[in-house]
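Response to reviewer comment R2.3. The reviewers asked that we include at least one raw input/output pair. We reproduce the pair for NAD(P)/FAD-dependent oxidoreductase here without editing.
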Amino acid sequence: MPERLHDVVVVGGGPAGLAVALGCARAGLDAVVCEKRAGVVDKACGEGLMPGAVRALTALGVDPPGYPIGGITYRQGALSAHAAFRGGPGRGVRRTVLHDALRTEVIRHGVPVLPIAVTDLSQHGDHVRAGGLRARYLVAADGLHSAVRDLVGLSGDGTAGSTCPPRWGLRRHYALAPTTDAVEVTWAARSEAYVTPVGPDAIGVAVLSSVRGGFTEQLAAFPDLAARISGAEPVSSVRGAGPLRQRASGRVAGRVLLVGDAAGYVDALTGEGLALSLSTAAELVRCLRADRPADYDRAWKRTSRRSRWLTETLLWARGRPALARRIVPATVLAPRLFAAVVDQLAR
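Raw output as returned:
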């Protein structure tokens, strides 16, 4: 009996990989997902879905429950600036809830999710072999520290060309009712705290910082937030990720394509990670459906250009103390500019 040839093997069963698998199935392609971790997978994540991410999920037939998000608020000391989303609401969604919704839809479409760890890979004229499977294409969606990216020689120096120090993220949930429908971003000297409503009785608290330390240590830079959650019950363990910046020298190596964090990552500062993963996943599926994988790198650059530019610019300012102190005051003094930037982020 001839060995089965799949259209696509997806390595990594997080949101980016599942979005590719689901997109492939909806396009009539035979896909299979390799994910070594069993069940629903959690990850350090701000969990605020921008309106563009909500629309991308809707296009895939996925509608995870969560809490409506109407905009973004920046805080620094007594200063505060708010910008509403113009094109519809975003949504605060627990990472586990999002993963479960995507995984359920993938399985409903008949896509196998196999407990396989891919540690070797070989490319041939018309197919790829990995994890005991054979496919026309392989999609690497295995995260920030992608093993497949290393295997195909697409890993770049994460610090090359950057004057900013490495940054890490930590996240925990608390049993507290949201006091606003906005993602609240509080700025400190070397870190930012993000409070995201993820349900009627729960918030997620994430800290991004260039200084390493435990969650309690990081919260010391945000005394008002620390006081607000001091009596609240934690409803999840602390999860961390980093260093956040990861470079890829390209997104395509023969029949292997990178998506999500594996394709290269700047920072979580603007909260666009999931929206970008979903939009580039759709581009990847389009290229595979047309049997034109080489087009994907250009499509990825085009789709991610605005997000990368905004994130790099804000991160550049964040890395300069004199400028960083002026970011929130600038949003207060120029509310229309802040609203325009948020509108760009929300697309």
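Residues 6-46+59-66+93-156+245-319 form a domain with the FAD/NAD(P)-binding domain fold (CATH 3.50.50.60). The mean pLDDT is 93. Further pairs are available on request from the corresponding author.
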